[in-house]
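Give me structure tokens for this 572-residue protein.
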Amino acid sequence: MSTPPPPTEAPPWPHCTHGADPVTDPVGCRGIHVPGHRACLAHLNDADRTAYLAGLAPGADIDHRETPFTADLLKQLLAALTDPTTRQPRLGTAMFGGAQFFGDAVFSRAQFTGDAMFVGAQFTGDAVFVGAQFTGRAVFLRAQFTGDASFIGAQFADDAWFTGAQFADDAWFGGAQFSDYARFGGAQFLTSAWLGPVVCARQVDLSNAVFGAPVTLEIAASAVACVRTRWESTATVRVRRAKVDLGYAVLAAPVAVTAHPAPFTTSTALGARAMDESLLTGPDRVRVTSVQGVDAAHLVLTDTDLSDCLFSGAFHLDQLRLEGRTSLAPTPTGWHRKGISPIRWTRRRTLAEEHHWRAQSAGQPLAPAGAPPEPRRWRTGPHHGDPARTPDPDDVAALYRQLRKAFEDGKNEPGAADFYYGECEMRRHDRTGTPKTERRLLWAYWALSGYGLRASRALGWLAAAMLTTILLLMAFGLPASSPKQEATGTVPVGGGKVTFVIDKQDPKNPGKDRFSTKRFDKALSVTLNSVVFRSSGQDLTTAGTYIEMTSRILEPALLALAVLAIRGRIKR
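Here you go.
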């Protein structure tokens, strides 16, 4: 990492000016004056530096902005601030903004009881904050780490800011605990192979961060933001408990987001131990909330909850890999009223976009922020009340279609069934992209068999059709009695050959006693043969013939829909 040229403007504080040159460096050393002196700590004479350090006490506030530190000078400063009881450095508010640390900067087990300000600091060697405790804010905005940055076992009681930091070598945060936000927005991890495990009570923000090498992240947090994060190489993101936002992330190589089943472990002097997750109070599941704008061809989601995940705007959703136990939002439970008719939604897995559209169309009130989902209602979206920003059925149908293909390509035909149902539902409600005739066909397909996916519905209609056929046959289709054969002939006058003509009486329409047991048996036989597309051979009236013809077309079709639905649920 190259050193930037000397700034040409003087800092706003009284600065050292050591080494100033009117031509090459008119400002000189920008380190802030040590109180009572006209030089920074690095350029004080030995006697003044010794006197200053002797006057420090553990917990003192210090200000050494833009000061250059050697490893020995930093060691002297921390020794002056060491608590004799704990034998660890204890600093109050520590101002190291823009400071330059040449060689290793060792802050191991240091206690920062005030804000620790390292804005723009440059670490040319290793930056070692192993076991450090930050009671106030830890601000490393735009800090540059040329060597290893080790925050193993560090504890952050307030916000930790690493926004814009550059890690040219490994960044070690194993065992770090953040009691508030951990902000890495815009940070650059150029060669880091491992980040974590860390525990964060609120959000780990990796938005706009860049990972330049293969990396594994282990994060237990309430939320993880990876908005517009850039992954230049493969990555494995193991997460616990968090809401993960991957919106508009750039994936140049495969990235796997996995719900880790057990607390992460970290190495200690006594061996591996499970990390304390007492800072976290949310549910023990990983919820992905957005993959909008992501090229899903490189994305793998394992054991994640996608109930509130937004897919609109993602690319190559048909190549998304969903592995393990993937949860999606169910339809509302219970009975509901639509107009004057009670309805009950078919149980299936749905996308958040369908929930948002239905809640918008039904005029459902906006759910309170942070409230758990109401199982009897559709879930409202982030743009509820704004139809222009809520996906319409045509958009949602395309999402279902692509995700269905992803399941089918993964040989998970039963898992794809709900996505096919959702696709047909959206096409049925789409009044702009779906012609009216097609919508009517979809309505019929839905009513008869749930788009060929609800065997119970098709079997119910089949039973109703068979019962109707039986009743119609008993009432109008079966003759009053079986027609008898008649033989007629003519005997020649002079004797000889007699010719007989055998005919059958026309069936007579039934009169009384149409609904008898005997007639029921005959009607049932005709109907059962019709279901399997066979003729019973039973004598029928003219009306009965047409009833049988209709049942031989309709009932086998309903049986086929039921078989199709069962096959769709068990196919492998």
